[in-house]
Amino acid sequence: MKTTVLALLGITLLGSGVGLGWIWRGHSESAGQRDSGIAQTGGGSDGTGGTVGGKNGRNGIAGGAGQNSTSMTMTGGKLEPAPQLARRILQEMLSDNGFSHGPPVELFEFLQALAGCDGPELKALLSDIHQSIVQNQGKGGPRRGGEEVAMMVLVRLAGVDPEGAMDKLLELRSAQKDKGGLPKEIMAFMFAAAGKGDPSRVEAMIARLPDEESKKSAQMAWLLVKAKQDPEGVLQELAAMPQKDDSGFSQAREILRNVAFRAPEKALEAAAKFGNPQQQSRMMGDIVQNWLERDPAAATKWAQQSQDPLALTICLRSEMQLDLIDETKLRSQFASLPTGADPSARSQLAGVLAANLARTDLPGALNWANSLPANEQTFAVNSVGNTWIEKDPIAASEWLARLPAGPTKDELAIKLINKIGPDDPESALTWANSIQGDSRSRALGSAINSIKARDPAAAEQVLNNLSEAERSNVRRSMEQMRR
User: Fold this and answer.
1) What CA–CA distance (Å, rounded) separates 387 from 392?
2) 300 vs 12, 113, 260, 315, 318, CA distance in Å?
3) C-beta neighbour count of 233 within 10 angstroms
4) How many C-beta atoms lie closer than 10 Å to residue 347's C-beta?
5) Which of 11, 114, 190, 469 could form an SS bridge with 156, CB 3.0 to 4.6 Å?
6) E strands in 41-142
């Protein structure tokens, strides 16, 4: 239900005085069925909105009214005021167990009927919802529906009476056993409605919140709203906010995503300074990926100019970078590349560059991989081996046999076992028996699964030849592979 409510709120911020001017057609026109007919929302501060009803259905669609508008609905040939309609729909959604989860059409009708309600009428609806939540406290799921319908009314009320909306929000919150932080999505919708033309109204709303957790969540929600109009200003505010813990990371990440649609380079600059290296890496990865999808040429150009390893890796893994990166030049300059926000980013980039070269020049790719420092060499050699195994497993197995023992060889051997197992399970088992250490159970499990696909009895015999402890570990690995 929450997804439906947020989607409906995303369609329009009611009470903004902005004419929507769109038409919504009902889901059914069959006689005897519920018919929502054709609804048209009205416009600005003096607009008049209304609907013409369907044959037998309730058509609770009120015009998108402004301050001096009238809003009526036609239901079964009878003209009905929007506030009366809103109350009637609300009563239908109420049940002995709390709120019934009405269908999207019913919620849509309720949302549009709210457009014709003034402040006192909206407060009266919220009082009814609050009473139902209190009466049904502890009865489980249905109460949740009441809270989410209440949010629809709160967003409308915030547009006409911000102080009244905050009063009702705190009243509803007092009825919750789990106080928690306020939902940032709902706060964002409320602030967008309340802050049109007078942002100070939102600051006053935030100041009234009772605890620091709610205030921080609300501040992030307000920044999210402002990011669409003033991305640079929002970045400055975000940078000035103290980051003592990880609680603001998800909100900051969402804010930077919004800023990036208008100013991706500035968003990347801000992300590189936010939080710890892992958070910086995740934020920058989001921004580069989204930018690459919208404008691959510009994103790739920035990656090359900045020489950021993470950005270069994302571009090279994408089909949208249009071969704009000179990989030969990048490999020759690899030693001089910066570390970037994530210390592992250089290793990942080395792996991608080595794998791409291995598709056309295996000896050259191995030579380049072996010239790298230890950590980056491990990633690069592993990538070359994976590419080689996919391309020519027989030749790759001869090279793999000459590699020194260690984790890299073991991981590549498992890749080889998975590749050759269906066609040559005996060779796969030989390779599995050559592996020692933590990877052995996985290797044996893969090989024996391949044998089992052809000859279950032979597979069981191989298992019986293992020690009891190893047999148990291998069976566990085999089961995990089948899931």
Assistant:
1) 9
2) 36, 48, 15, 6, 10
3) 12
4) 21
5) 114
6) 50-52, 72-75, 78-81, 94-95, 98-99
Strand, coil or helix: what is 284?
helix
CA 415 to chain centre: 32
Q: How confident is the model at residue 417 (pLDDT cuts 50, 70, 90)?
A: very high
Tokens representing 441 are 């159970």
Give the rounded percent of residues in the chain with a pLDDT score beyond 70. 70
Rounded Cα gap, residues 5 and 147, in angstroms: 11
Query: Are the CB atoms for 422 and 450 separated by under 8 Å?
Result: yes
C-alpha to C-alpha distance for 352 and 315, rounded to whole angstroms: 10
**How confident is the model over 176-191, as a mean pLDDT?**
59
Q: Which two tokens stand for residue 63?
A: 């015009």
Q: Is residue 81 pLDDT above 60, yes or no?
A: yes
Q: Which of 104, 155, 93 is nearest to 2 (CA)?
A: 104
- pLDDT value at 234 more than 70: yes
> How many angstroms separate the CA atoms of 151 and 131, rounded?
15
Question: Cα separation of 70 and 63, whole Å?
Answer: 8
DSSP state of 49: B
Q: Distance between CA 274 and CA 339 in Å, rounded? A: 17
CA distances from 16 to 39, 65, 126 (A): 19, 9, 20
26 pLDDT band, cuts 50/70/90, is very low
Half-sphere exposure of 193 (CA within 13 A, CB side): 29
| Nearest residue to 324 (alpha-carbon basis) of 314, 334, 315, 313 | 315
Q: Find how far residue 74's CA is from the centre of its chain.
A: 40
**Those residues with Cβ within 8 angstroms of residue 185's Cβ, 6 or more apart along the chain or in another chain:** 6, 221
pLDDT digits (tens, 9 = 90+) for 254-280: 788 888 888 899 889 888 887 788 888
Higher pLDDT, 230 or 460: 460
CA–CA gap between residue 384 and residue 353 (Å, rounded): 9
CB contact at 8 A, 85 and 60 = yes
**What is the distance between the alpha carbons of residues 133 and 357, in angstroms, rounded to a whole number?**
63
What are the sequence ranges of the domains in the chain? 1-175, 392-483
- Report residue 33 as tokens: 């069925």
* Mean pLDDT calculated for residue range 130-154: 66
- Selection from 384, 9, 29 nearest residue 192 by Cα: 9
pLDDT, greater one: 20 or 298: 298
